[in-house]
Amino acid sequence: MMGKKNKAETILAQAGHYLDKATGSVVPPIQPSTTFARDEQGALYDANRIYARDQSVNAEMVEAVICELESGEACKLFASGMAAATALVQTLRPGERIVAPKVMYWSLRAWLISFCQDWGIELAFYDPCDEVDMAQVVHASPTHLLWVETPANPTWEVVDIAKAAELAHSVGAQLVTDSTVSTPLLTRPLELGADYVFHSATKYLNGHSDVVAGAVITAKQDTRWERLCKIRAQQGGILGPFESWLLLRGMRTMHIRVERACYNAMEIARHFADYPGVLEVLYPGLVSHPNHETAVKQMSGGFGGMLSIRFDGGREQTAQIMGRLKRFVRATSLGGVESLVEHRALVEGEGSPVPDDLLRFSIGIEAVQDLIEDLEQAIKG
Ligand SMILES: *Cc1c(COP(=O)(O)O)cnc(C)c1O
Predict the structure, then answer these.
(1) Which residue puts its alpha carbon closest to atom 5 of ligand 1?
(2) 0.85 cut: is pTM over it?
(3) Distance between CA 318 and CA 378 in Å, rounded?
(4) How far, in Å, from the CA of 292 to the mean position of ligand 1?
(5) CA gyration radius, the chain
(6) Which of 24, 90, 159, 248 is the most buried (most CB within 10 A)?
(7) Smallest CA separation from ligand 1 atom 12, residue
(8) Tens digits of per-residue pLDDT, 270-292?
(9) Model pLDDT, residue 1
(10) Is 53 one of the annotated active-site residues of the chain?
């Protein structure tokens, strides 16, 4: 082996450098066996394989690649992003405290509110645009977990991970970063001091809108990590072999996909920043974005494929613009090769903090001119 660590592009393209010595095949097979046999003496053929609720050849291949990308000590793959995130929060004990951002992935926020109430875990929210507020909330009472999502859905605030880690550690808490939108390519939270990274692998990691999956990566295999492993083993939230195989396949082109999505998003953000009928483009790559400086500091290689646009004329006009789009697909989710658009306030319903003149775009890897043209005709009406 060459001594130096492989770069992300190589880790992804080679995805574990699989080679079957028996057949020469360069792509791993799918191993669907739920149980693993013992020999005549009762010994397992492989000491690590007994039963597939928590042991999966295909999932382990994916975990190894993600773990290397994030410079972690270990990674666990789950059957969805929500399964992964909720398992991490379930490592908290009654009476402990989690601090989370006011603006974050909507379903996780909703789950946190009911779970923490039901299980006696203290939950407090901070304003992700305000470092002073984050510090005050963390200091207000003994805190165990600080949750950061960056850039955050759907306004793309960028939180300074290094500062958040310092803050968390100063009170003996641990930092989790939801890095779904940054991907393991643009930001590496563990290298900035985070203790755990979470990804909805449904998004950029898989990238083809055909697998639901989640991952947690840890800086150290500490006691919280052991609890998380136990939760997955006992609750069985592991990703299935076929989905794991598809995810590994999808990941092999992530660097190319993310590079193109970042390029397209930047072009669209610049094109529409001062466009008639546009109130505001929210994209961390724009100098006008309030957290642009932090984004420059902690994102490298691009500012992601997610952006939001606020339009003149309020809810009705905005809904009409969305209705006129022909190339963008009107659907939730993000991180796929095809561009999607969503009216978040409409989807989230009553109580949503998202302005109703905002459309959220997941920019894909199409020809950017086609996307710009589509948006232009939709705005002009
Ligand atoms: C999609 C998403 C999740 C939840 O992941 P699922 O795979 O849908 O369960 C969590 N956080 C962010 C930022 C997401 O985009």
Answers:
(1) 81
(2) yes
(3) 10
(4) 24
(5) 21
(6) 248
(7) 105
(8) 999 999 999 999 999 999 999 99
(9) 52
(10) yes
